[in-house]
Each structure stands twice: as structure tokens, then as C-alpha cells.
């Protein structure tokens, strides 16, 4: 989290999106530690994210259903699996990519 803080200090983004999983647990500790180090607001386990002016509207799954919260930017948001729909490359596109030069 300290290394990420140095990157955030250098780049000055308004929103940092982090994952929730690490090799040892599923506690999204890095995003929470980064928010604490920066003194920024945070929203965890986001399954939907919308930017509304100077705030991020985050929807997350909780035991009773869905919870929507708003956090003022700049902020840290940790992602749940449902935040993004993965796109998979088709076999023809994989074969084409093998022939393309690397720059």
C-alpha cells in the first residue's frame, strides 16, 4: 500500500480501483490501507460504479440485498467480481494476434 501511495501521489488520480483478492486472503486490505494512508474515502466490494460530478456512487452486495453508497472523490473503490463482464478473445483473433509484431 505504501508503494501504491507513492504512485498515487505522483499521478494524482481522482479514483483508484483496486481488487479485493490477494494470494493469502479475500479481505481487500490493500485498498483499505491505501485509503487510510491517503486520507481518502473508500467504498469496498463494488459491483456497480457510477461517477456523479465530484462523487462516486457505488452499489455493493450485502447480506440483505444491495446497498448503494456515495463517496466523495478522490476515493478508493475495491471491486467485486460483478463490477466488470470479462471479454474473451475468439480463436480466430488469438491466431491473428500470434502473427502481429511486438513493438
TrEMBL record:
Domain Electron transfer flavoprotein alpha/beta-subunit N-terminal as annotated: residue spans: 1-101
Domain of life: Bacteria
Gene3D superfamilies in alphabetical order: HUPs (3.40.50.620)
Keyword Coiled coil: no
GO terms of molecular function: electron transfer activity
Keyword Transport: yes
A Pfam family annotated for this UniProt entry: ETF
InterPro entries from the UniProt entry: ET-Flavoprotein_bsu_CS (IPR000049), ETF_a/b_N (IPR014730), ETF_b (IPR012255), Rossmann-like_a/b/a_fold (IPR014729)
Cofactor needs: FAD; AMP
This protein's UniProt keywords: Electron transport, Transport
The protein's role, per its UniProt record: The electron transfer flavoprotein serves as a specific electron acceptor for other dehydrogenases. It transfers the electrons to the main respiratory chain via ETF-ubiquinone oxidoreductase (ETF dehydrogenase).
Subunit relationships: Heterodimer of an alpha and a beta subunit.
Family designation: Belongs to the ETF beta-subunit/FixA family.
Protein name: Electron transfer flavoprotein small subunit
Organism ancestry: Bacteria, Bacillati, Actinomycetota, Actinomycetes, Micrococcales
